Amino acid sequence: MHDGERIIRADIFLTIIFGATAAYAAIDFSTAAQWVGAVTAMSLFTIGVFTFLWSYWLAIQRSRVDEIYATQLYLLFGPAIPKPVKRTLWLTLLAQIAIATITTFARLDGPDGNPGSSLAVGFLVPMLGFGFNGLWAVTHGTFAPRSGTVRVTTSAGEIGQNADHG
Predict the structure, then answer these.
(1) Which has the closest alpha carbon to 16: 42, 38, 44?
(2) 58 Cβ partners below 8 Å, 6+ apart?
(3) Cβ burial, residue 81 (10 Å; 0-12/13-18/19+)
(4) Are 88 and 132 in contact (CB under 8 A)?
(5) DSSP assignment string, 40-66
(6) Structural domain harbouring 160
(7) How many CA atoms lie within 13 A of 38 on its CB side?
(8) What CA–CA distance (Å, rounded) separates 19 from 96?
(9) DSSP for 1-53, written as a single string
(10) Total number of domains in the chain
(11) Which helix (H) or strand (E) holds 139?
């Protein structure tokens, strides 16, 4: 299994974990269940932020030689990403959004009857999907070379002849 497959499998696995814990929290809705759901959602959000920033840093480095757009990187638009990969990563992102929406609206009020629920924290989880999209795209996507770049090469003699100029 190569790194690209690991990224996809991690995204799928963590989405399943989110679905299971969010469903448990929505169905049981006890304090313990809500804590499990909220801690899982916050952990996945943290992983998502980390992978998003990591992919962004890698994209900045790679953009020196390749044309990379944010829509290609995080939304997977364009020909840089193979269709099967694009489909899988989109479906996991869509699943994260759907799970967050369904579980949040399943319990609009907290256990004490006040409006608002800890299940709304699940809306942060799609950051995980965007992070994995970016990480896969920047490490395995096939982007066009940057246009209009000029590579300058100099010989040691050219540099040495200007040494006395400071």
Answers:
(1) 44
(2) 135, 138, 139
(3) buried
(4) no
(5) HHHHHHHHHHHHHHHHHHHHHHHTTTB
(6) 3-165
(7) 11
(8) 8
(9) --HHHHHHHHHHHHHHHHHHHHHHHHHH--HHHHHHHHHHHHHHHHHHHHHHH
(10) 1
(11) helix 126-140
**Distance between CA atoms of residues 95 and 80, nearest Å:** 23
Q: Would you say the pTM of this structure is higher than 0.90?
A: no
Classified as helix, coil or strand, 115 is strand
Q: What is the pLDDT of residue 11?
A: 98
Selection from 58, 21, 32 nearest residue 138 by Cα: 58
> pLDDT 10s digit of each residue in the chain, 166 long?
788 999 999 999 999 999 999 999 999 988 899 999 999 999 999 999 999 999 999 999 999 999 999 999 999 999 999 999 999 999 999 999 999 999 988 877 766 666 567 888 999 999 999 999 999 999 999 999 988 765 556 565 555 565 566 5
Six-digit token string for 55: 């992919």
Q: Which two tokens stand for residue 109?
A: 């009020």
Q: What angle do CA 91, 50, 68 make, to 5 degrees?
A: 65
